[in-house]
Specification:
Structural class: mainly beta
Number of strands: 41
Strand order of the largest sheet: 9-10-11-12-26-21-20-14-15
Shape: globular
Mean pLDDT: 91
Distance between the termini: 12 Å
Radius of gyration: 26 Å
Number of helices: 4
Length: about 575
Amino acid sequence: MQLSFNVLEFTMVAFTLLLVADCHPHNGRRLTETPIVRLDIQTRQVTMSNGIVNVTLSIPYGLVTNISYGGINNLLATQNVDKNRGYWDIFWYRTMSKRARKKFLGNNFDVIMENENQAEISFKSTWNTSQSDELPLNSDIRFVMLRDTPGFYTYSIVERLEGWPLVYIENLRVVFKLQQDMFHYMAISDERQRIMPMPVDRETGKVLDYKEAVLLTDPTNPNLKGEVDDKYFYANDNKDDRVHGWVSTTNPPVGFWMVIPSDEFRTGGPYKQDLTSHVGPTVLSIFVSRHYAGEDHVIKFQQGEPWKKVIGPVFLYLNSNSSAINNPALLWDDAKRRMNQEVASWPYDFPVSKDYIKSNQRGIVRGQLLVNDSTTLVPASNGYIGLAPPGDVGSWQIENKGYQFWTKVDASGNFTIENVIFGTYNLYATISGIIGDYKHTYDVQVTSGCSIELGSLVYNPPRNGATLWEIGVPDRTAAEFFVPTPPPRFNVHVYQKNSESIFRQYGLWEQYSVLYPENDLVYNVGTSNYSKDWFFAHVTRNIGNKTYEATTWKIIFNLELVDYASNYTLQMALAAAHRAELQGK
């Protein structure tokens, strides 16, 4: 029997901000022995300080213009104008022809709290109906500094009132741009850490098939010549993005880290990918975006639709260690330790806004998830299970207005989802190696302080009979398939390990046409090996002159006995698709 696919293009890839002054900050000191928190309010700026770090913001806009630390006057990009150093911004539109980017600029500055242990300040912007061409959204951008804490936090409260006009939001983030002559080493994960190109290297390089990808033809660091720089190389799943940032080449070196202690305020669930840090040097925390998801992740507010959400806090962390001059990974290790402290402290107890829900107003949901494996019940071990706003099976992947709360199932199938904001949710799960998505039959109503025991739950994967064959693993990645080496005209940066970066190289898709210049992929069940014989992405073939043709892959398998009275079902788990059409015959 032969099974064919005709595919035009298909990818099978099955704030609080914190700054830390020192890797060991307290040194046994009591809080009363440390400098107090101070606010210095001038006509056009306010400076928050705690004896470790000073942070200056413009009044009334709330733009971060200066971060001084460890004798360094400003870690931010002084070559940029004040309004292009540290800020929150948003990309929005009402019609696609009028897409706009807007920085959140306050029109009212207020001191929310000021004492020797804590300061919280607010930069608020309010929309009214006379501003018909402006973004119909209220924003309250907050900054918090704590005593003896090497850094500061930031969060936002965004709101639409009932009756306001239609608007679409496609990106919402916080951005910091650093001194380019200081910060050269970037760390995204234990694996992806490296010396990065300079901005000028992109300017002198050659733009490739899309503007983000630039071939470095004459870089300031000759070791990088022939590499491709692309910010998408450094994307991460939400579940894996807890800390990232840069290390300076000063003596002693300084680390500048974005710490994201929770995913509850980000959209798309644990497997949503987004940008982290990239050449600039730029540090991001993205809360809403269409990256890797397209139109499904645009927040679409209809005419009159109200909404309110607290985003963050996230934490920007500064650290320093003289020993890191030859080993910048030391500062990464310390940043991970601080990140774990922040995660353990979530939800924070210090934000003053009544809209930020504290731990005593949240609930806990426990249970056990089992999988019906046709013959027995087995634990849904290492699956992700979470609460998200009510919807269809799998709708959590494109949900973008509410909060989501996810955790990993243990080896016995047990799970505990802590710190859930009160509200009505559906319980969803996705399990590596098991096709389909789980959704609990009933809504879960979480109230303040509640503890809900759901007992043992059973997921019945879609199955119409015995499995005849299977290619790959339904785990939302294409890691198990064949990933080619990039085109030889590009130099590839080699990490100590390459499991995260191997499929993030530029030009991999070109290699299908090299491997299959005329005839398409044929996979023989029983003799082919998907790690060698199944290309990781189903793409078009380049036939020259910027012309591409659809490709048809074939799966050949034998059935000793065909039951013509029965139906045979093909199930597919797709990791991603972009401008693609799948046809079977």
